[in-house]
């Protein structure tokens, strides 16, 4: 953990989205969003995700917010009903943290996850001063790897993390965004391209 707790409460605004705190009134929407096969497949959520799981989830979310160990925000369009979630957790003293996201099935393919990830990652870098942001993604999760790529994350090369789950063993790759290295990565790729095609870029 960093020396100071993560800010609470928090509202963040990004392109077409408002990220806001979860509230007790969100229980029915939360259950409808999370009780879904892709979320069961690709995230550690309990399945089936019923009202009891929802109550426990909102309680843990609030604890994590109040004790400052995580940021966990509902993705909304204008601060209204939740359409998904984005979270930041596992902050270390070397200014690294992990980010996770999910979007309810009816709301997918509208850019919500990409907008939420960019907004929270921007806040983490600029307001919290975090240097390295990580995503853990199963390589078969095409939707999530597309979101990572679109938001400027790249495969870190860290060894895969193996996990046993209800769908068998999974292998999570680490994707990273390192502050200050984006330009350097672009230059590296241009140099590789120039060597490959024997021309200067
Ligand atoms: C992964 C997930 C959050 C994506 O949410 P989303 O709001 O639909 O994503 P976006 O609309 O922001 O899409 C961002 C990019 O991913 C691409 N994408 C999204 N879903 C895709 C899919 N199923 N297949 C291929 N590409 C996909 C979009 O086309 C877009 O790429 P582009 O910028 O090149 O057009 C959503 O599918 C989900 O909640 N899945 C289940 C939970 C999960 O996997 N969470 C992540 C765990 S690591």
Protein model, in words:
The chain has helices at 27-34, 37-42, 51-66, 112-126, 142-150, 182-196; strands at 12-14, 17-21, 71-76, 84-89, 96-103, 132-137, 154-155, 161-165, 168-178. It has 201 residues and is an alpha+beta fold. It has one domain (12-196): 3-Layer(aba) Sandwich (Aminopeptidase). Strands 1, 2, 3, 4, 5, 6, 7, 8 and 9 form a nine-stranded mixed sheet that branches. Helix 1 (27-34) packs across helix 3 (51-66). The longest helix is centred in the first third of the chain and has 16 residues, at 51-66. The model is unreliable at 195-201 (pLDDT under 50). Coenzyme A binds at residues 38-39, 42-43, 101-103, 108-114, 137, 141-144, 146-147, 150.
Rg estimate, integer Å: 18 Å
Output mean pLDDT.
91
Taken as a percent bin, the fraction of beta residues is 25-35%
What class do helices, strands and sheet pairing give?
alpha+beta
Small molecules (ligands, ions, cofactors) in the structure: coenzyme A
What form results from the Cα inertia axes? globular
The major beta sheet can be summarized as:
9 strands, mixed
The overall number of domains is 1
| CATH topology descriptor | Aminopeptidase
Q: CATH H level: which superfamily?
A: Gcn5-related N-acetyltransferase (GNAT)
Order of helices and strands: EEHHHEEEHEHEEEH
Distance between the termini: 42 Å
Poorly predicted sequence stretches spanning 5 or more consecutive residues:
195-201
Number of helices: 6
Helix fraction bin? 25-40%
Architecture in CATH? Answer: 3-Layer(aba) Sandwich
Topology, number of strands: 9
The CATH top-level class label: Alpha Beta
């Amino acid at each position: 953990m960093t020396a100071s707790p993560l800010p609470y409460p928090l509202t963040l605004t990004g392109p077409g989205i408002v990220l806001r705190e979860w509230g007790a009134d969100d229980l029915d929407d939360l259950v409808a969003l999370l009780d879904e096969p892709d979320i069961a497949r690709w995230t550690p959520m309990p399945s089936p995700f019923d009202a009891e799981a929802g109550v426990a989830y909102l309680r843990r979310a609030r604890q994590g917010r109040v004790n400052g160990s995580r940021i966990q925000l509902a993705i909304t369009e204008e601060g209204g009903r939740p359409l998904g979630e984005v979270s930041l957790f596992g902050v270390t003293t070397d200014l690294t943290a992990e980010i996770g996201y999910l979007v309810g099935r009816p709301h997918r393919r509208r850019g919500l996850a990409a907008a939420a990830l960019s907004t929270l990652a921007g806040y983490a870098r600029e307001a919290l001063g975090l240097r390295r942001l990580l995503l853990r993604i199963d390589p078969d999760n095409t939707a999530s790897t597309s979101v990572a790529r679109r938001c400027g994350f790249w495969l870190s090369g860290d060894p895969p993390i193996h996990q046993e789950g209800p769908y068998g063993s999974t292998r999570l790759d680490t994707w990273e965004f390192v502050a200050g290295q984006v330009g350097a990565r672009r230059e590296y790729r241009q140099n590789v391209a120039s060597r490959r095609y024997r021309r200067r870029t």
